[in-house]
Design goal:
Strand content: under 5%
Order of helices and strands: HHHHHHHHHHH
Number of helices: 11
Shape: elongated
Structural class: mainly alpha
């Protein structure tokens, strides 16, 4: 716990190298500590070290099968590695533990869209909107999914809703998808 706490403090002052060292030590000293394994895996993921992260996150969920955040991070890392079916599986496990997490609904929807199930993905984005009607991200994700399906008019409507919720701001990502 001391190393995890120190790592958290170092992250707050933007010392990611120091945080990495402490989390590596926490994982080494606590091979059966799911939090230590998760924390080390999570920081590795933020540094783009996805293969190493995957090892730690798999260990974390093996040690604590009901650790929803670990399942969610595992799913996101699988996605970064292009392992989209595995991402869907891990995110589904996370969702079973936290069904009302709007961010998780979006992650799961993106993973579904990436394995060729865009309608199911959009269903997840809409579920996130039911959880929080003022949440802008699902509109962006709906728009991106519809644009990928060549449904540009519907995509534009979703992007417009996104912009409206983002206080009238523009979105370069949304604009690029519509071109």
């Amino acid at each position: 716990d001391t190393h995890i706490n120190l790592a958290g403090a170092l992250q707050r002052i933007n010392d990611s190298d120091g945080a990495l060292r402490h989390l590596a030590k926490a994982a080494r000293l606590g091979p059966k500590d799911a939090l230590a394994q998760f924390s080390y895996g999570a920081i590795l993921a933020t540094r783009g070290e996805y293969e190493k992260s995957l090892v730690q996150l798999k260990l974390a969920v093996k040690l604590a099968e009901k650790y929803g955040r670990a399942w969610q991070k595992l799913g996101k890392v699988h996605g970064k590695l292009g392992q989209h079916a595995e991402a869907v599986d891990a995110l589904k496990r996370a969702l079973a533990l936290s069904p009302k997490d709007k961010y998780l609904r979006c992650d799961y929807g993106r993973a579904l869209a990436r394995i060729g199930r865009p309608k199911e993905g959009i269903t997840q984005f809409r579920y996130a909107l039911r959880l929080d009607p003022g949440f802008a991200r699902p509109h962006l994700l709906i728009g991106a999914t519809l644009a990928a399906e060549k449904k540009c008019a519907k995509a534009k409507s979703a992007f417009d809703r996104y912009r409206k919720l983002r206080a009238g701001g523009s979105s370069a990502a949304a604009d690029a998808l519509l071109k």
